[in-house]
Amino acid sequence: MSGIGTRRVKRICIISPGHLATNPRLVKEADALSEAGYEVDVIVADYLLWAREKDECFKNNPWRVAAKLPFGPHAPLAARIRQLIRQKPARWLVKRGANGRSLVESAAHPITGELKAAALRTPADLYIAHYVAALPAAAAAAKRHNSIYAYDAEDFHLGDWPEEQQYDVERRLLRAIEGHYLPGCAWVTASSPLIADALVEAYGVPPPQVVLNVFPKAQAPAAPTQRGSALPGPSLYWFSQTIGPNRGLECAVRAIGLSTHRPHLYLRGNLASGYMTELDNLAAEAGA
After folding, report:
1. 23 pLDDT band (50/70/90 cuts)?
2. Are residues 204 and 170 in contact, defined by beta-carbon separation less than 8 angstroms?
3. CA 2 to CA 282: how far, in whole Å?
4. Of 21, 34, 46, 124, which cross-links 62 as Cys (Cβ 3.0–4.6 Å)?
5. Residue 267: strand pairing partners
């Protein structure tokens, strides 16, 4: 089996605070590593009823789900209480200036502790963290098992939040965790060149390797279609987990208002409360 640097890697553990069904990038990574001959364990979360059902689609994949960690309203009551007791006071203290490592990590996500415990129970030669909440777990497990860890940035998370004072705590938590753990990564991958550049600027890390967030060419249509399905004009199809503010949709609607081609805009995702009214008002104002 091939090695990484001077280290021989046979077993890999991928860690994420999301569902398998909500993270196709993780699934593609697990599939690719398994096909390359590595033993792959995956640690994921469980918090959405529809995604729990869809996760069953992956039960016959060649890699193993080592742990599914519940959190949120659908978690067992004991787990839910334990997570709230850990996270709520930690966030209260962080808002008032506390910056201890365990406090910051507990405040950042409900299952930071569970991710870490599951990773510590899963020996591997390499741990790959997806999303910020998985970084402490990957680093702790790598230290316990005398191995290495890496980070896959499919988003620039510091840019997730508007530049407003009410979101200062969220940005502090992100910066504290990524700033502490990224320098210790064996490598960092990013889903776009601009995300890679933003991580270099924010943390001074070596340029991440860009792995585009696309599907294999083998899954593409045999030939290009002659035209889109929207008539009489062009169309833009927007998919994201959440259809909400400050994600670029406002810019898209204003651009439609300026365009002479009047493209159609199709949205697919979970609609944030009240956002459709906001988007309708913006469309009317922009003439879209």
Report:
1. very high
2. no
3. 54
4. 34
5. 238
